[in-house]
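tool_call: predict_structure(chain=1)
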Amino acid sequence: MSDGINGPTGVASVAAYVNANKLKSVGAFWATGIVGSMAYQWSRNIPFQLKLIHSRIWAQGMTIGAICLSGLATQYDVYQKTNAAPKKLVDSLKK
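tool_result:
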């Protein structure tokens, strides 16, 4: 997905950024989720104690999700690197 002049566009540029900045991407996902869940809890008409409890539960879930995303990003990077080597070998043998 490249227009040939300006480099990758759309999904390809997002994927390239996430691949280059894994920790920033996972941290941004986590922070956005935490802020969003707290904003939602504070907009509800429930007692303050329940708002805190629900926000903590969502924060724990988002933390686990961020850790899983970090692991998946790392494994995907390893997968790309290991599959690139055999392709290069096959291409060099075809010449």
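agent: Residues 76 and 82 are 10 Å apart (CA to CA). Proceeding to next step.
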